[in-house]
């Protein structure tokens, strides 16, 4: 009888520990998601120099690499519907704008972008979110004319 009660208590404790661990991991993940979302939200409609945009580009590249986001044949990140982040930069080109993905900027060399746009002004004009979980999905930074 004592063995059965002890066995039931041990099983109950193991289940309790497993549930506590799962809830802890879920909560840590939610805090990380919220921190990332808040950081990207802070860029919305904020004027910044090209050098700050380069920092955002590098941060986004690191985040996508950490999340193991796959790339297509052109080297562009594929939207996975969960935690992929796309960043687009709208650059002034012949009295209009041309949109460039950050992966193309990185593939061509970030130094070229820094040399050309380090003192240019940019503004985050749009943020979209994944429908499934509310994580940041994409951002659009637009070059501002002086």
Shape summary: elongated
Task: Let me know the number of strands.
Answer: 5
The average pLDDT score comes to 89
Estimated structural class? alpha+beta
Q: Percent of residues in helical segments? A: 40-55%
Q: Helical segment tally?
A: 4
What's the main sheet like?
5 strands, mixed
Order of helices and strands: HEHEEHHEE
Spatial gap, N to C terminus: 83 Å
Integer-rounded radius of gyration: 22 Å
Q: Which residues form runs of ≥5 with pLDDT under 50?
A: none
In percent terms, what proportion of residues is strand?
15-25%
> Which strands sit side by side, in order, in the main sheet?
1-4-5-2-3
Notes on the protein architecture:
49% of the residues lie in helices and 24% in strands. It has 4 helices and 5 strands. It has helices at 2-41, 50-66, 102-108, 110-117, and strands spanning 47-49, 86-93, 96-101, 121-129, 136-144. A hairpin with a 6-residue loop joins strand 4 (121-129) and strand 5 (136-144). The chain is elongated, with a radius of gyration of 22 Å.
């Amino acid at each position: 009888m004592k063995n059965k009660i002890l066995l039931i208590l041990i099983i109950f404790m193991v289940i309790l520990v497993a549930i506590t661990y799962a809830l802890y991991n879920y909560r840590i993940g939610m805090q990380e998601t919220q921190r990332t979302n808040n950081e990207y939200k802070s860029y919305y409609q904020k004027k910044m120099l090209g050098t700050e945009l380069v920092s955002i580009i590098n941060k986004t590249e690191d985040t996508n690499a950490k999340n193991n986001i796959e790339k297509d044949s052109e080297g562009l990140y594929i939207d996975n519907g969960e935690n992929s982040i796309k960043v687009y930069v709208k650059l002034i080109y012949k009295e209009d704008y041309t949109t460039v993905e950050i992966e193309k900027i990185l593939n061509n060399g970030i130094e070229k972008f820094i040399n050309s746009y380090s003192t240019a002004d940019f503004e985050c004009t749009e943020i979209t979110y994944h429908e499934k979980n509310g994580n940041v999905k994409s951002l659009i930074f637009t070059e501002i004319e002086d």
